[in-house]
């Protein structure tokens, strides 16, 4: 008779996910501008993976384009920036208050590789490249069915609404 030793367990890292209710604690955006539906996994100081479920009843499809609806590129970039903002707050281990604002500082090397259409699930992978003088720089890639749809380097800063008129880096 063979016995199996069950006294040792192998620990696998737990996935850190977030539902929409948790996401809303980290982002001030609300419909129609909340563009992150779920966080699949994240690691502080490193990366985050989130999704945007693209549905035909989204307001922007009424005009972009009625005969061939595609998600506007600027909204794909915005969805990745919102994902990056969540990662920043998680990395700092804080929840923003009603006075917190995250602003774009720059967008570099943006490329749009394929259209994102109703029914698609945009999977956004964002990694922190560096943080310097209050400026966060990320590499962001959005894909659908494993194929890159959009990629860019994003730069953002987190400000108090009271300080929002001050230049970045001050």
Describe the SSE topology.
Layout: H1 20-26, E1 38-43, E2 47-53, H2 73-92, E3 100-112, E4 121-132, E5 135-144, E6 147-160
Antiparallel strand pairs: 1-2, 2-4, 3-6, 4-5, 5-6
Keywords, please?
globular; lipid a biosynthesis; 6 strands; lyase; cytoplasm; single chain; EC 4.2.1.59; 6-stranded antiparallel sheet; Thiol Ester Dehydrase, Chain A; 16% helix; alpha+beta; 170 residues
Instruction: Give Rg in angstroms.
Output: 18 Å
CATH superfamily: Hotdog Thioesterase
Assign an overall shape.
Answer: globular
CATH architecture identity: Roll
Indicate the CATH class: Alpha Beta
Give the percentage of residues in beta strands. Answer: 35-45%
What can be said about the biggest beta sheet?
A: 6 strands, antiparallel
Q: Which stretches are poorly predicted, pLDDT < 50 over at least 5 residues?
A: none
- Count of runs of 4 or more consecutive helical residues: 2
N/C terminus separation: 72 Å
CATH third-level topology: Thiol Ester Dehydrase, Chain A
| N-to-C SSE string, H for helix and E for strand | HEEHEEEE
DSSP strand tally = 6
Q: Residue-averaged pLDDT, rounded?
A: 90
In helices, the fraction of residues equals 10-25%
Total domain count: 1
Give the strand line-up of the largest sheet.
Answer: 1-2-4-5-6-3
- Structural class given helices, strands, pairing? alpha+beta
Main location: cytoplasm
Subcellular location: Cytoplasm
Pfam family, one: FabA
Active site: 64
